Amino acid sequence: MAAASAAVRMLPDGGADDEERWLAEGIAGVQQNAFYMHRALDSNNLKDALKYSAQMLSELRTSRLSPHKYYELYMRAFDEMRKLEMFFREETRRGSCSVVDLYELVQHAGNVLPRLYLLCTVGSVYIKSKEAPAKDVLKDLVEMCRGIQHPLRGLFLRSYLSQISRDKLPDIGSEYEGDAESINDAVEFVLQNFIEMNKLWVRMQHQGPVREKEKRGKERNELRDLVGKNLHVLSQIEGVDLDMYKETVLPRILEQVVNCKDDLAQFYLMDCIIQVFPDEYHLQTLETLLSAFPQLQPSVDIKTVLSQLMDRLSNYAASSPEVLSEFLQVEAFAKFSNAIGKVIEAQPDMPVVGAVTLYVSLLTFTLRVHPDRLDYVDQVLGACVKKLSGKAKLEDSRATKQIVALLSAPLEKYSNIVTALELSNYPRVMDYLDNATTKVMAVVIIQSIMKNTTCISTSDKIEALFDLIKGLIKDMDGAQDDELDEEDFKEEQNSVARLIHMLYNDDHEEMLKILCTVQKHILLGGPKRLTFTVPSLVFSALKLVRRLQGQDGDVTGEDVPATPKKIFQILHQTIEALSCVPSPELALRLYLQCAEAANDCDLEPVAYEFFTQAFILYEEEIADSKAQITAIHLIIGTLQRMNIFGVENRDTLTHKTTGYSAKLLKKPDQCRAVYACSHLFWTDDQDGIMDGER
Length: 694
Prior knowledge:
Pfam families: Vps35
Oligomer: single chain
Shape: elongated
Protein name: Vacuolar protein sorting-associated protein 35
Main location: cytoplasm
Keywords: Cytoplasm, Endosome, Golgi apparatus, Membrane, Protein transport, Transport
Number of strands: 0
Largest sheet: none
Structural class: mainly alpha
Membrane topology: Peripheral membrane protein
């Protein structure tokens, strides 16, 4: 009757309501037979106890339930089987029944599935009694379980076997330990059960209609821990030392993982291996473990698993300084780098984002384990460039995000852009970013410099730096100015201006080279940028002028010492570019600043030339009346502070200024300006002018 009842339930699946009904029927069957089983146990009626337990276990023969519902039914039966096991143990202890006879007796159950559950239960008692070696009983059980080949029923049966045997393995130090070879038997039992469970788990994917493939994938995912816990049991066996793991355990597991050719199983089991076995074992078997990755299915998310492995090992490296020598000894970086190359080569259709993500993980590993090896860092960047070669600028936002992570990692680790500038492949990776992201990365670089107050002190380094931030200092190919938000543009250019102030070298000659390098780059920036960047360059140059006060000499040619005259030549060229923007008011202010600096250096002709340029700008470029008023007062104030001019030059400049003042549009403005000019004819300094008549 029980067999017929179970057979009726082996019909095609129905809806969710039907499944709930079938589960309720199954649970009712388990409870009913469990009730009669308990009554038989209480009256020590072994025959009836076996009869009703077999009928109870027949409920597990159903094919109608989803894995989730089947698990509920299984747990009801499992709880009852624990009570039956305790009864068997008590019976054999009292001598009412021999455990060997019991082991034979349960094999007469009518159906295979109940028979095997009962056999595993008695087998647990058999091992506990020590009347037979544990390894023989376990070997017998694991072989007998081959009788169930239905994926779902077979998985839960083997899970039951794993559950009742985990504390009875002939492990080192265990009460069931036999001879020297017994540890091999324990490992072999767990491995064999694992392999068979994985085969059943994989087979689930290929049963049923194609349209339900996704549903089966989700159901299988719910069952993954049944398979994975075998690996956890293996990791807990005391006798599995590094040698056994290297020679037997890992190769057998990887063989099964690779051969199953199932993406879900491969991803989960590789992740399990990484999580359950010790870091030291991974490090010492790195080559074997990594050799499996290129053989996995193309659809397996290898980057996630490899990233977890590298993350675990980098944490292991950080745990103790002594461990680092092991990483060098096994050449961990070279092995990871080689494995990633092979994975990418084995999967030509791998998206760019997948490959770049692998390199981000490798770079993170390298920076944590070998922070002093810049050649390793550059090698990772170079490998990424090789993968990207032949491709246009990245358009995939996810790949772009990973490239930014790749480029940001060295900045965060070294807190010093100078270190990143030594990486030859760093700018080559940046070349693959689109224009917008190139600017974002340039801002990140500048922010890093500001945050760490990094001083970049050689023209070569600055040349490399400006190559990295070129997205901010000049228009990129294909960039559209009207696409840029005005506020963002101002913020970007202000960050470049702040950067220029960070460039410094105590050596005057090198500082002059730095200024020339900066000038070369910013003059290519176009009219919109010059108003932000030129003032910073001018004031940086004037700082150097003040350091050089007193040094003079005629300047000819390019290769000359750093002198104020040389610097003023550079400043003249730079401000002249600004006056053509046009931004005449700013240019005029800068000319006057330079004139005042030339005054402090006793360079009368230079100061006069700057004033001349300021007057030309005033006459030709400044037409707005308010701007004229501001400009004339600036000229008057600067001229009043000048004490280097001879009588003739001063008279010329003073008369010019007074003439401009008298020509202002409004009379009140004329009066104020002319009144201010009166101070030019009466100064109180040592060489002061006191021309009361004028």
